[in-house]
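Thread: quick sanity check before group meeting

JM: Hey all, I'm pulling together slides for Thursday and realized we never actually wrote out the predicted structure for the chain we discussed last week. Dropping the sequence here so it's in one place. If anyone has concerns about the input, flag it before I start.
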Amino acid sequence: MKTRTIFSYVLFALITICLNIPFVLNIFYLHTLDFYIILLFDFVTAALVIIFLILFFILERRKYFRIALPVVIFLVSIFFFISYNWQMSFADYVFFKMRKKKLNEFVYRIKQYGKITEMSEPRVENGSLNDSLFTYNPGHLSKDGKGYTHLYFDLIKEIKIEEGVHKEFINMLKDVNCSKFQVNKDGGVCFTIKGVLFQSVGISYSPNGEKFVTYGTAKEWKQLDDNWYFWGN
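JM (edit): ok, ran it. Output follows.
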């Protein structure tokens, strides 16, 4: 086999890999990677496809390959955009399935402890706990009764939350790639997924298997499992 032909096959394989990268990123990393990182990968992938295709045309002399490859690239690109909504839906399901065990364990722990009904993953110096905004920095305290009205250690003492348990819950939130949760009156738990641009999305546990009619700005509810739903606004 000629060296030119071998390099053509290598380029064909590289182009095939590049064409699959955007699908993999959307389905497996949509809710865990920053949107701009995914966009950057998409642009880099598109640039590589163009470069590899130019090299392929330089090396490949067989007419049917020179015609077929651009057609395949065009069709895959069209399919990517046509199937975008399906990719988003599948990404929600994959995200949940990969974290189902940890989410169930987290819900059990939340109900077992019973004292924390709402919390967010603290951002550097601030956060929320049981619908109260707190700060670790006294300089961030609000003087007008709005915003951050509690120092962290004062708040956990006031509502009788053990610091160790709160830290445990923070780590559990990180493990399931969520930024906050809220316990509803019926015992359901709504998790907000972090790192999603332009909208709020999350996963909710429903003890009776029914979707929540109202939760924040949520408008979309999609069942993922017997007691689990994906929600979005």
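AS: nice. Strands lie at 118-120, 126-129, 132-135, 150-151, 178-183, 189-193, 201-205, 220-225, 228-232. The chain has two domains: 3-82, 92-232.
JM: adding both to the slides.
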